[in-house]
Amino acid sequence: MTLKIETRQTSGVTIMACQGRIVFGEEATALREGLKKILSSSRQVVLNLSGVTYIDSGGLGTLVGVYSSARAAGADIKLCGLGQRLRDVLQITKLVTVFEVYDSEQEAIAAFQRARAPA
Description:
With 119 residues, the chain is an alpha/beta fold. The protein contains 4 helices and 5 strands; from the N terminus they run E-E-H-E-H-E-H-E-H. Helix 1 (26-39) links the parallel strand 2 (13-22) and strand 3. It is globular and about 40 Å long.
């Protein structure tokens, strides 16, 4: 398996940093299972994809599926650290309109904090 996932908490937000490839098979399953486990206890997740070198259609499908499940459960997932190739893939597939994408973890965390702030 060529996907490493590190998880940590910052300001009440769970950060999941991925390194390697997100492809159909073991990698996509590992990502799905990891996110499911996190979403059982955290409602705010930042998926840092800065270490992701490649994603295939199975990996994209996993991202969309997990995102849909999270939203249905009242949770939210934001993406950050996308390389140019991943940005292009999201653009071409129009998934850039589905996910909230930020340049850095700090920006994604700040977006959660703005959403929590009383109006």
